[in-house]
């Protein structure tokens, strides 16, 4: 690519990164621009999670874009090495580099480049490109990739922090700060329409043992897969919140106790149907669920407390079950 064209791509990218768009759109803009700028087959961004122990797939462009994304432990693979060392990498033939880990057989990789994403003195992720050609990248391309990484990292971090104000970084569920305001909103809507609101309080059983035996990276994977399965088992209007640790809350608008209990049972069935497979570990994870339906005389705190008490009753009764809260007297 000539200098004029490269400058145009960089100027366009800089303009797009000054907006307040969602993080996912930022990341895809960067990987698209990277492919546009460099003679590569595939471009990707991976970001460290909040615990800084796992490198999560953020966006991909080019070959393999539609394949399921792969995550890495910190230090694993070329990208993990780049993040761990804070150093770039350029490999002419991955077959002869011990850091290379193949995760997608849908496209061929012979050579690659990767640059760390730096923000406020810390590495937050990695920007990388691959090619099916051997020795496809020269020093000039490495400098362009570094320029892209340096331009992109600060706005990416700002977008990530905006998202963290509302979403949990590991599970992409809403975080605990969102719970009460959204619950109040749904209670007001139900009051106007003479409808119902139900809560499911969910706590993963014996989750501490997962972290103790398999490590926090596997534990984070369990949390992420649990949230994914819950989302597949519920309606689009239902709101999943990570309350903290291994506790989750599901806000169910316009839902009575019978339907809420059925939803809890369906979530349990999805967990019991097949184990989680993470980093060669095969884990069967159960959940205790408490269900409470809003009594119009209740405050949000009172409704939450009843759902919480029902969840702990499920624990006391042996775990891996759904308990419906006693109606408010």
> If strands are numbered along the chain, what order do they take across the biggest sheet?
3-2-1-6-5-4
Overall average residue pLDDT = 91
Structural class: alpha+beta
Tell me the total number of β-strands: 14
How many helix segments?
9
Q: What is the CATH homologous superfamily assignment of the largest domain?
A: GAF domain
- CATH class category of the largest domain: Alpha Beta
Stretches with pLDDT under 50, minimum 5 residues: none
What form results from the Cα inertia axes? elongated
CATH topology tier name of the largest domain? Beta-Lactamase
Count of discrete structural domains:
2
Computed Rg: 23 Å
EC number: 2.7.7.65
Domain GGDEF: 195-327
InterPro entries: Diguanylate_Cyclase (IPR050469), GAF (IPR003018), GAF-like_dom_sf (IPR029016), GGDEF_dom (IPR000160), Nucleotide_cyclase (IPR029787), Rev_trsase/Diguanyl_cyclase (IPR043128)
Catalytic activity: 2 GTP = 3',3'-c-di-GMP + 2 diphosphate
Structure write-up:
The mean pLDDT is 91. The longest helix has 26 residues, at 139-164. 39% of the residues are buried. Helix 1 runs antiparallel to helix 2 (23-37), helix 2 (23-37) packs antiparallel against helix 4 and helix 6 (207-214) packs across helix 7 (216-233). This protein starts with a helix and ends in a 5-residue tail after the last strand. With 329 residues, it is an alpha+beta fold. It has two domains: 3-164, Beta-Lactamase, CATH 3.30.450.40; 174-324, Reverse transcriptase/Diguanylate cyclase domain (Alpha-Beta Plaits, 2-Layer Sandwich), CATH 3.30.70. It is built from nine helices and 14 strands. 42% of the residues lie in helices and 24% in strands. The strands form three sheets. Strands 3-2-1-6-5-4 form a six-stranded antiparallel beta sheet, sandwiched between helices. It has a six-stranded mixed beta sheet with strand order 7-9-10-8-13-14. Strands 11-12 form a two-stranded antiparallel sheet.
